[in-house]
Structure prediction request, 137 residues.
Amino acid sequence: MRLLRLAFALAGCFLFLGCGDDAGTGSVSGTITLDGSPLTAGIVTFHSSGKSQPAVASTGIAGGQYAIPKIASGSAKISVQSLKPSQPGANPDGTVPPAPKGPYMPIPEKYKNPEQSGLMFDVKTGPQKHDFDVKTK
Prediction:
């Protein structure tokens, strides 16, 4: 009986706290548009507060879609870049995003900086969807 209670207590802890490397992580996917049109050649970066590594995804998928399969849960500031396919650039934090695929669509400079973009998202554990519409004006 004592062993059974211990087993239930441990099971409850695992359910409450989560287990493995995926505890406290989620996945985010969605669409980035520029004034309502899909941003096909872009980079989206989630800068999670208190985390050292940002999560980066390319919008080189048809329709401006992006997907980040594993990202730390918590509040994140977002930066978005539109780069020429032949000239990949660096994020403000020094990381280098993958080269985008698709036509170049210039966007305002403020979106490159997560502190100025005005884009935020609260990442929860598990899969979630979030779309962004970047404005030129």
Observations:
- The chain has one domain: 22-132.
- The first strand starts at residue 25 and ends at 34.
- The chain has one helix and nine strands.
- The helical segments are 2-17.
